[in-house]
Amino acid sequence: MANITDMRKFSESTESLQKIRQVPHNLEAEQGLLGSLLIDNRGLEKIGDRLSPHHFYAPAHQRIYQAIQTLSDRGQTASAVTLKSYFEKDQDLEHVGGAVYLADLAATSMGIINTEDYAQTIYDLYLRRELITFGEDVVNDAYTHDIDRDVESTIEDAEARLYKLAESGEQQSSFVTLRDSILTSIERAEKAFNTKGEVTGVTTGLKDLDSKLGGLHGSDLVILAGRPSMGKTALATNIAFNAARSYAESGGEEGAIVAFFSLEMSHDQLTTRILADQSSISSDALRKGNITETQFRDFAQAAHRLSSIPLYIDDTAALSIGSIRARARRLKRRHGLGMIVIDYLQLLRGSGSRQSEQNRVLEVSEITRGLKALAKELQVPVLALSQLSRAVEQREDKRPMLSDLRESGSIEQDSDVVMFVFREEYYLAREEPTQRAAESAEKFNERYATWSRRLQETANVAEAYVAKQRHGPIGTVKLYFDPNFTRFGNLETRYSGS
User: Fold this and answer.
1) Which residue, 106, 108, 107, 110, is CA-closest to 118?
2) Which is deepest, 290, 304, 323, 361, by most CB within 10 Å?
3) pLDDT value at position 10?
């Protein structure tokens, strides 16, 4: 018993000698928990997956808890007697009486205590100590000037570390009973039933696409790929805006708060596209200022009407996957977050350098794994745009395939959905037939008429080809596309005049 008293006296004398604030700790709580575990190892079952040796303040207590865990994992009983040989010459216990300290812990324990409350106290104090260390490190990093490390990187690292510390306090997932899992499945099935088989995830605002995908689902990485001028950004912008507008109009019951990372276009260019669509004014006319006073008034009214839509745009160039993660976490903490859009994947940076083609492939693999991990961590769909290789242009049929995904097979591997956007009209318009040598006028006219008819059939028609869907069917969805307003819509709007 004298040994525990000695440790308390040691702590008290240290505090009296040092005229500074002591880091948060509670030796009595640590002693009480360890003593209880030495009497009944079953208490470890309640806290073993939440409390680790490094959470204890006293080095001796860290060693004792580690030893209790080790013996328990081996199926052996951890008691003052069985642990004695481990600590007879342990320097961490020497100043409090060596192995005899173990017997004192068990003897002075109150027996079976609420181990979970004691463990929570110890863990809370550990977090406070970590926050103090974190603050000191941030100050030291701020004083350090490194030519290869800018202040933005320092802030992002600090945010990531603080977020990780905050998340570490969450209850870790464990076994779920079949009964609980069944209840969750019933809730999801009920939600799907109430939607009448349509949207169970975040709506894209496009009826046929929602029907094919069931909306965009939390934790899914969705790749939207296409060649230049196919409308990747336009489609992603339409989907992001539709989801955010649905959220605003339904009071949060549908849609999502959307984060749009635009690595290619500026935020005002992206916003102008949305306003052009909503005010039905050509983007080209807006850019050149060729609009009437009435049109400008419509434009201003659309801007006012859409100002409450929860669509957040970040147009910082050359972001790293770490920056995306930190900024998405920050947005979720401050405003909430239900969906992430990234335009586009190949403009993101990984953690390494781009010194060779092989390194670039590895970097893209790192990026796609990071995006999938981010989707799972935040439980939101991540829609990432991707380029396609030029091999598409060499084929007679320009429709893309999974093998056309540029730079890395990991894009297909890590994604839950891969979708291609394709507009046959774009290619047909650039392939107007000319009369060949020795070709008769009748043959040429016939070939020209076929081309003209096909061009008319494909006018304003886009295809969204779902080439991979981990939890659903693949296939092609036809959409309406108006290049004047960079607007995608349901195909029937082509005939309704809306």
Assistant:
1) 110
2) 323
3) 53
Residue 421 scores a pLDDT above 70: yes
Q: Which amino acid is at 103?
A: A
C-alpha span between 403 and 412 (Å, rounded): 9
Q: Where are the beta strands (DSSP E) in 89-227?
A: 221-225
Amino acid at 400: P
Give me the DSSP letters along 61-90: HHHHHHHHHHHHHTT----TTTTHHHHTT-
**Contact between residue 160 and residue 324 where contact means Cβ atoms under 8 Å apart:** no
Tokens 């604030």 -> residue = 21
Neighbours of 458 (CB within 10 A): 17
256, 247 contact by CB (below 8 A): yes
Which pLDDT value is given to residue 239? 92
- Say if CB 463 and CB 479 are below 8 A apart: yes
**Per-residue pLDDT at 221:** 93
Superfamily of domain 180-422: P-loop containing nucleotide triphosphate hydrolases (3.40.50.300)
Q: Tokens 């306003």 appear where?
A: 275
Amino acid occupying residue 83: L
For 6, the token pair is 């000695």
Measured CA to CA, the distance from residue 450 to residue 305 in angstroms comes to 45
Question: Which one-letter DSSP state was computed for residue 21?
Answer: P
Strand partners, 418: 223, 468
Helix (H, G, I), strand (E, B) or coil at 93: helix
Q: Return phi, psi of residue 127, to 5°.
A: -60, -40
- Tell me: the pLDDT tens digits for 150-204? 777 777 778 777 777 776 655 455 556 677 667 766 776 666 666 555 667 888 8
Residues 6+ apart with CB under 8 A from 312: 257, 258, 259, 260, 331, 335
Q: Could you give the CA distance from residue 448 to residue 186 in angstroms, rounded to a whole number? A: 58
**CB-based contact 419:232 (threshold 8 Å):** no
Please indicate whether the domains covering 2-144 and 180-422 agree at the CATH topology level.
no
Top-level class of domain 2-144? mainly alpha
Residue 229 Rama label (left phi>0; alpha psi -120 to 50; beta): left
Whether residue 261 contacts residue 324, with contact meaning beta carbons closer than 8 Å, is answered with yes
| Burial environment of residue 385 by CB neighbours within 10 A (0 to 12, 13 to 18, 19 or more) | buried
Cβ atoms of 279 and 304 within 8 Å: the answer is: no
Tokens of 205: 């605002």
Ordered by start, the domain boundaries in the chain are 2-144, 180-422
